[in-house]
UniProtKB/TrEMBL annotation:
It comes from Herbidospora solisilvae. InterPro entries: Beta-lactam-related, Beta-lactam/transpept-like, Beta-lactamase/esterase. The keyword Ion transport does not apply. Residues 17-364 form the Beta-lactamase-related domain. This is Serine hydrolase. PANTHER family: BETA-LACTAMASE-RELATED, BETA-LACTAMASE-RELATED DOMAIN-CONTAINING PROTEIN. Gene3D superfamilies: DD-peptidase/beta-lactamase superfamily. Signal peptide: none annotated. It holds the Pfam family Beta-lactamase. The keyword Hydrolase applies. It comes from the Bacteria.
Length: 372
C-alpha cells in the first residue's frame, strides 16, 4: 500500500491491506499520530468506481457524522476566546431562536429537543441554509429540553453552525478554515470549494430496504424503519435524503454530515487538540468529560456525550476511559486517546452497516497492539 509506516507499526499496514482483501474495502486512507509524530499514513484502492480513478495521497472523502466533532471545536474555539458562553441562552446570540430556556451547552450535548422538524426541509432549502435555521428557530422542542439527550443527526450542525455564524460573522466552514484548518495546514473542509472537487472520492452507500414492515422486526430495531418514529424523523429532517456525491451539496455547508478531508487532515485535527493548538487544555478536558449518559432518545442505545464530542462506551472497539471523537455513517472514524498520545483518522468511500463492519476496528486494534 502507498504511504509510510514507522518501524513497529507494520501490523497497521497489514490490517489496512487485509481490509481490502477480506472486508470489501474499495478506497480508503488511515493516518495515525502518536505524541505528535506521524507514525502511519496509508492510502489505497479506488476513489471513484465509476471511472476507476485511483485513490491518491490527497484524495478527499466525505465523512458524514465524523464532521460533528470538528463543528463542535469551532464553537468551543469561540468559548476559548471569551466570545461565546456555554451557559448563556442561545437566544442571546440568535434572537429569532425564541427558546430562552435552551443554553448553548444543550446544543452541543444533543439536549435541546430539536432533533427533527415538524416539516422536513428539502435538499435545496438545506443548501440555502437560511430556510433551515428559520425552521429551527420556529420549531417547538420535541421533548423538555435538558431532560434527555437525543441525537440531533442533521440539526446539530445547523444549530451549532448558526450560533458560530451569529457570534463570529462567518459561516462555520469559513470559520473552520480561517481559524483552525488553514493555520494548522489540515486538509479538511466543511463546504468544499469547487476547485477541490476533483479530489473528492465517490461515496458508495450501503443498501437500505425501507420497504420492510416495522411490525415484523424486533422491537429494538423497529424505530429505524418506522417513518413516524423520532429515530426516522431525525434522520429525515431533510427529505428526500441528501446526496453528498452531488457537487452542489459538496460545496454547501452541512456541519453535521458533509465534512470532507483526508485521513491525514482528520488525524491531524485530533493531534492539534492533544497538543493545545486548537483548544486550551482546560477547555478540552471539560469538553471531553462526560456531560450526559444513558439511553439516547433518538438512537435507542446507550450513549456517553461530551460537549460535541462522542465518548465511546466500554464495549466499543475504540474505547479508552479518556478517548473522545466521533464515528460517521458508513464507517469513518476520527478520535484521540490522550492516555496513549494517540490521534487517529480513517476515511473510506464504501459505506457499510455498523453491525458487520470490522474495518476501523481492525485498524485501531492493530495500532494499540503496536503501541503495547
Amino acid at each position: 500500500m502507498p504511504g509510510t509506516t514507522a518501524p513497529g507499526f507494520e501490523p497497521v499496514q497489514d490490517a489496512f491491506a487485509d481490509n481490502f482483501e477480506h472486508h470489501d474495502e474499495i478506497g480508503a486512507a488511515v493516518c495515525v499520530y502518536v505524541d505528535g509524530k506521524k507514525v502511519v499514513d496509508l492510502w489505497g484502492g479506488v476513489a471513484d468506481p465509476q471511472t476507476e480513478r485511483p485513490w491518491t495521497e490527497d484524495t478527499l472523502q466525505v465523512v458524514f457524522s465524523t464532521t460533528k466533532a470538528i463543528t463542535a471545536a469551532c464553537a468551543l474555539h469561540l468559548v476559548d476566546r471569551g466570545l461565546l458562553d456555554l451557559d448563556a441562552p442561545v437566544a442571546d446570540y440568535w434572537p429569532e431562536f425564541g427558546k430562552p430556556e435552551i443554553p448553548v451547552r444543550w446544543l452541543l450535548t444533543h439536549q435541546a429537543g430539536l432533533a427533527a422538524l415538524d416539516k422536513p426541509v428539502t435538499p435545496a432549502e438545506a443548501v440555502a441554509w437560511e430556510p433551515v435555521v428559520a425552521a429551527l428557530a420556529a420549531q417547538q422542542p420535541l421533548w423538555e429540553p435538558g431532560t434527555e439527550s437525543g441525537y440531533h443527526a442533521h440539526t446539530f450542525g445547523w444549530l451549532v453552525g448558526e450560533v458560530v455564524r451569529r457570534v463570529s460573522g462567518r459561516t462555520l466552514g469559513t470559520y473552520l478554515r480561517e481559524e483552525i484548518t488553514a493555520p494548522l495546514e489540515l486538509d479538511f473542509w466543511i463546504g468544499l470549494p469547487e476547485s477541490e472537487h476533483h479530489r473528492a472520492a465517490r461515496i458508495v452507500s450501503p443498501a437500505i430496504d425501507l420497504s420492510v414492515d416495522p411490525a415484523t422486526l424486533p422491537e429494538a430495531v423497529r424505530p429505524y424503519f418506522d417513518p413516524t418514529s423520532l429515530t426516522m424523523r431525525a434522520s429525515m429532517a431533510v427529505t428526500p435524503f441528501l446526496d453528498h456525491n452531488d457537487p452542489v451539496e459538496l460545496a454547501a455547508e452541512f456541519p453535521s454530515t458533509n465534512g470532507c478531508g483526508t485521513a491525514r487532515g482528520l488525524a491531524g485535527f485530533y493531534a492539534g487538540l492533544l497538543d493545545g493548538r486548537i483548544l486550551s487544555p482546560e477547555l478540552l478536558s471539560m469538553a471531553t468529560s462526560e456531560q450526559v449518559s444513558g439511553v439516547d432518545k433518538v438512537l435507542r442505545v446507550p450513549v456517553r456525550v461530551g460537549l460535541g464530542f462522542g465518548l465511546p462506551n466500554p464495549d466499543e472497539f475504540w474505547y479508552d476511559p479518556t478517548a473522545f471523537g466521533f464515528p460517521g455513517y458508513g464507517g469513518s472514524l476520527g478520535f484521540a486517546d490522550p492516555s496513549r498520545g494517540l490521534a487517529f483518522g480513517y476515511v473510506m468511500n464504501h459505506g457499510k452497516h455498523a453491525a458487520d463492519d470490522r474495518r476501523a476496528a481492525n485498524l485501531v486494534e492493530a495500532v494499540r497492539a503496536a503501541l503495547s
